[in-house]
Amino acid sequence: MYDKLGLIFLVAFLISMAVTPLAIKLAPLIGAMDVPKDARRMHTKAIPRFGGLAIFAGTIASMIIFMNFNDRVIGVVIGGTLIYLLGVIDDLKNLPPKLKLLGQVVVAIIMYMYDIRIEFLTNFFGEGKMDFAAPISFVITILWIVGITNAVNLVDGLDGLAAGISAIAALCLAYVAYIYGQYLSTAAMLALAGGALGYLPFNFYPAKIFMGDGGSLFLGFMLATLSVMGFTKSAAVIATSVPIFVLGLPIFDTFFAIFRRAVNKRPIMEADKGHLHHRLMQLGYGQRRATLMIYGISAIMGIAAVMFSRKLNVEGIGLVGIALMDIYIFLTDPNHVLPQIRQEREARQEVKEAERVEKNLELESEGESESETE
Predict the structure, then answer these.
(1) Is 2 exposed, middle or buried, given 0-12, 13-18 or 19+ CB atoms closer than 10 A?
(2) Per-residue pLDDT tens digits for 47-63
(3) How far apart are CA 340 and CA 333, in angstroms?
């Protein structure tokens, strides 16, 4: 296992990259197309929504080929398959939110039965831990799995965003697992990162395919379960604190979305345009720039998680502070400079388009003149 970690990542990457073009061709045949129907959509034409197949295939195939299976790994593969199928059904049939949430809870309960549990909370700044009674452990585990699953699903709003954030989180968690000697979890995280990155070139702006709920639910579920799958009490800091910082951005966005909808007296499961990526778009950054900005914040949080895992708390807190300052800088524009930049860019594009049309008319006019001369 130790000497195959790079191969596990590479195989997942290549399988995902190979399957994505097939998913693009298959999507219209099964009706898995994302047609822009409301103002929340960032695209203006129908785009295949079946990219989750590539991520799922690359990740699971690499795990099956290279990993040594125990009961927990078997549980994760079964749960990942079930959550992916739930997402695909939702993509095709548009399930009611409550029914989709119920399906997620059922899969999370199955994971608890496979002994994938959060049974304690470590003292983040010192020694010792707090063990949970079985009922509390059950509730916290279900909330963790369902919460992270939906957190990744909620940030899937820009081209390449969910896949990139998930890959960053998986790579950071893989490194932390590696330094603690948890090679089974390292391998699984590398397979997940490879699956996400193999699909990403087709999904980065301008996207040729979307992952759909099948892909985003699968990514969130795998991050939630793998982050607590193989860690022992001797590596307790990994099982609780580290994933919270690695996935800090989607967790923050989810909590803020719930708070925002509660204040506005809207259903918690109702979609809106108040997420971080939507706000960056409204400020005029554009999809590619907004996505890269969020990548940067996620990477800083991931590195902070690594610092915390190595007891470098001061350095970790400093990085978290930098990430928060970045978010503040990105979301504030007191001089309204960004809308002005956007207007100037649109004006330049209009001028170029007018020049192109004028040039085409001149060419057509010249062609007609030549025809009359002949």
Answers:
(1) exposed
(2) 899 999 999 999 999 99
(3) 11
